[in-house]
Amino acid sequence: RVLAIRAKVLGPDHADTAASLSALAGLYFKGGDYEKAAPLIERSLQIYEKASGPSHPHTLTVIRNLIELYQSAGQYAKAMPHAERSLKLCEQKFGVEDAETAAALMTLALVHVGLGEHSQAEVLYLRSLEICEKTFGLAHTNTATLLNHLALNYQSMTFYEQAEPLFQRSLEIREKALGPDAPDTAMSLNNLAGNYLKSGDFAKAHPLFQQSLRIREKVLGPDDPDTATS
User: Fold this and answer.
1) Most CB within 10 Å of its CB: which of 40, 144, 156, 179?
2) Residue 61: Cβ-neighbour burial (10 angstroms; 0-12, 13-18, 19+)
3) C-alpha 104: how far from chain center
4) Cβ atoms within 10 Å, residue 165
């Protein structure tokens, strides 16, 4: 109803109409109806680009939402041009070593991972990690997130020895910054254990899986999906 009123009173190409399109798309997205959400976000993006410009915060937000939608739908080929464009816009607007650029690099890397292009993802992750370490520091949780993604990428490439120290660094940062019982700490324990498991070192994997399970049962509860995974 809000969308219909704004489109009629303000016009179909008004920024507020775009905001309603985006809000309605968000509702469909959260409900898992990606087919209904996608054209609404695409239309919202077209309006924002025309009304506010390609580098406006609203435009960048809608681009990110569109990437997330296509990723969630498993449509990585559709996400790719938007992820590439998001990176280019961030580099132009914020600079090549800004935190926003680091986030765009990580997003593009994740799209490459979805397409099975792990070598391309590695280059992007390393660039993003370098920016995060400079911007936030070696012990920041954002740095831990990048380390974890890079390690998972190496794991997918079966480079278990390269992944191990990255998983360990990510775990150490999260234990110190978030605490030993935080859900992200449990995730890092689980990921490091999984790396040992895939490399055949069951003795090292077992206690880490147990520790991750204890945290998740305590913090998330016995019926949480992550507890079930552990």
Assistant:
1) 144
2) middle
3) 9
4) 11
DSSP, collapsed to helix, strand or coil, labels residue 120 as helix
With 0-12 CB in 10 A as exposed, 13-18 as middle and 19+ as buried, what is 217?
Answer: middle
Q: What is the pTM of this model?
A: 0.91
Strands (E), the chain: none
- Tens of pLDDT along 178-208? 999 999 999 999 999 999 999 999 999 999 9
Q: CA–CA separation, 95 vs 100, rounded Å?
A: 9
Residue with tokens 């390269």: 162
pLDDT confidence of 52, banded at 50, 70, 90? confident
User: In angstroms, what CA-CA distances link 74 with 28, 52, 60, 80, 156?
Assistant: 16, 30, 21, 12, 18
Residue 210 contacts by C-beta under 8 Å, 6 or more apart in sequence?
A: none
Distances, alpha carbon 149 to alpha carbons 37, 72, 97, 122, in Å:
28, 17, 19, 9
Instruction: Give the three-class secondary structure for 30.
Output: helix
> What is the C-alpha separation between 212 and 189, in angstroms, rounded?
6
* Rounded Cα gap, residues 8 and 14, in angstroms: 10
What sign does the dihedral 179-183-189-195 (CA atoms) show? negative
